[in-house]
């Protein structure tokens, strides 16, 4: 019997990847119900045209999520810390509070709908690692160090609180950032440069499509309920990322490694939070990469993309960005 999977954020990066993975699956074990705040959007219409059942649902509207989970065997839940918000929404609650409230809404709705296997897309809570550290700025009135990590990690316990059969899927930095926020940029002398404060430590990365494929594999594994599955597609230093980008683009890309203190002073929103995040990646390097054992991830998802494989599929986008 085909099992129905309700996918939160179906028009976003992670949810969309799972929808596509289900639709491309030759086994046909699952059907997909795509949850979106705007079923009339172009992205939602594309999902419907591809065969998904598209329904309107919002993590800030518990009744809509409960209805969307009705009859589903499984659910994939992801919250969007980076969602565009109005000034009024920003003033009403922090983004971390938003994620916590939305996760609790999803947990209650899943419990009430009798969802049998939920995947919660989460991250490590950095606060135990940074405990007592004055050199790492606290945010959100002292509550968090890296709010978009810590709130997700804090929310893990909510799914246990409500008795939801849950697998905790820990993701990492997206390779896709190299064609968006972290795309190679030309410095003053015209050299293409990538910049992040990791020194010589390796940065774990993953293709968003592999988040979807890994989630699909987890849905086939009820033995993973209650477990934490941490994924990545590669662990590379900044110099290794730059070398791979150079090969793909056909032009030298250089890695610049500012200190985290310098990075936190950069003139863009959330520079402090992102600096703290990179500091966690760098200082917790051994445990973070060790938890994302590529051999084990590939056993779960045999089509796992390395950074080189991902680059081959995005060479044209990168070349266009480089001009």
TrEMBL record:
Q: Which domain of life is it from?
A: Bacteria
PANTHER family registered for this protein in UniProt: NITROGEN METABOLITE REPRESSION PROTEIN NMRA FAMILY MEMBER, NMRA LIKE REDOX SENSOR 1-RELATED
Which Gene3D superfamilies does this chain map to?
NAD(P)-binding Rossmann-like Domain, UDP-galactose 4-epimerase, domain 1
Task: Name it.
Answer: NmrA/HSCARG family protein
The family classification in the record reads: Belongs to the NmrA-type oxidoreductase family.
Q: Which UniProt keywords apply?
A: NADP
The UniProt record lists the NmrA-like domain at: 1-285
Protein's organism: Kribbella sp. HUAS MG21
Sorted alphabetically, which CDD domains does this protein's record hold?
NmrA_like_SDR_a
């Amino acid at each position: 019997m085909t099992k129905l999977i309700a996918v939160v954020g179906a028009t976003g990066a992670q949810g969309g990847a799972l929808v596509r993975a289900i639709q491309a699956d030759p086994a046909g074990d699952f059907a997909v119900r795509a949850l979106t705040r705007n079923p009339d959007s172009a992205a939602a219409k594309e999902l419907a045209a591809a065969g998904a059942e598209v329904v309107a649902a919002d993590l800030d509207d518990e009744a809509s999520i409960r209805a969307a989970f009705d009859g589903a065997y499984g659910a994939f839940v992801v919250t969007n810390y980076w969602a565009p918000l109005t000034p009024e929404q920003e003033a009403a609650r922090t983004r971390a509070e938003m994620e916590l409230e939305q996760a609790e809404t999803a947990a209650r709705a899943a419990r009430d709908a009798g969802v049998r296997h939920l995947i919660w897309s989460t991250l490590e809570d950095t606060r135990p690692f940074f405990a007592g550290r004055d050199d790492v700025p606290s945010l959100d009135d002292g509550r968090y160090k890296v709010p978009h990590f810590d709130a997700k990690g804090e929310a893990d316990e909510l799914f246990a609180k409500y008795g939801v059969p849950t697998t905790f899927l820990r993701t990492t930095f997206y390779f896709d950032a190299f064609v968006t926020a972290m795309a190679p940029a030309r410095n003053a002398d015209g050299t293409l440069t990538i910049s992040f404060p990791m020194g010589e430590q390796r940065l774990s990365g993953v293709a968003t499509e592999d988040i979807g494929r890994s989630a699909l594999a987890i849905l086939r594994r009820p033995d993973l309920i209650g477990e934490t599955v941490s994924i990545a597609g590669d662990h590379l230093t900044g110099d290794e990322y730059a070398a791979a980008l150079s090969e793909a683009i056909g032009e030298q890309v250089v890695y610049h490694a500012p200190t985290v203190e310098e990075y936190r002073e950069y003139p863009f929103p959330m520079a402090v939070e992102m600096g703290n995040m990179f500091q966690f990646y760098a200082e917790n390097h051994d445990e973070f990469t060790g938890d994302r054992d590529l051999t084990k991830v590939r056993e779960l998802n045999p089509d796992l993309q390395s950074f080189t494989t991902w680059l081959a599929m995005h060479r044209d986008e990168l070349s266009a960005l480089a001009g």
